[in-house]
Amino acid sequence: MVKVSSLNKSFGDLHVLKDVDLQVAEKEVVVLIGSSGSGKSTLLRCLNFLEMKESGSIEIDGVQIEPKSTNLNVFRQNVGMVFQHFNLFPHKTVLENVIEAPVVVKKVPKDQAIAEARVLLEKVGLADKEAVYPNKLSGGQKQRVAIARALAMKPKVMLFDEPTSALDPELVGEVLVTMKDLAAEGMTMIVVTHEMGFAKEAADLVVYMHDGQIVEAGKPMDLFTAPKQERTRSFLQAIL
């Protein structure tokens, strides 16, 4: 589903991604872990071309994506992204936020978009909030609306960039439950997170990044209990 080969990205003199290789199969959940500044979020943003790679290749669903030859607006319809901050339209209700992109971008008939949005709001546990404006929601509720909004485009891959890091601790769980449900349903997901419990429970593959490189990747049980690299061991000992 997703294949990254020899990916490089710099910001000025700072070499942020260094020959990164990553493969994600359909219906697989891959969790990226590592210290702040290790390149995790930059990798995610490169996959959605919010940041432009300098070299290497990105292939999604069998198609190699090149900014000069690919219509990125069409491409992004297949790659949903949920950010740390919710980026909801404050002047639109929950329902209006969810239907905006399908109606405007994909030209889905409004009645159909509303019906599909209500199914998604039920899925994320917010069916009773469709007429509410974002300023009346908790952080966890806003993030679940953001997830529903991304799902409304029926993406093939979902990217999550530290989706719980801006939330109060008591609100983290409700968002992680929604993400675990998505994983159980077979959504292909790449998740940057500091929530190691989620990584252990939901991930098919955990990838540890340091200094712009993938140091180690493995199944959660293997990586968390018997990491092969000293750098991975040091990181896990510091956070667990």
Automatic annotation (TrEMBL):
InterPro entries: AAA+_ATPase, ABC_ATPase_HisP-typ, ABC_transporter-like_ATP-bd, ABC_transporter-like_CS, MetN_ABC_transporter-like, P-loop_NTPase
Listed GO MF terms: ABC-type amino acid transporter activity; ATP binding; ATP hydrolysis activity
Keywords: ATP-binding, Nucleotide-binding, Transport
Coiled coil: none
CDD domains: ABC_HisP_GlnQ (cd03262)
PROSITE patterns in the cross-refs: ABC_TRANSPORTER_1, ABC_TRANSPORTER_2
Domain ABC transporter: 2-236
Name used for this protein in its record: Glutamine ABC transporter ATP-binding protein
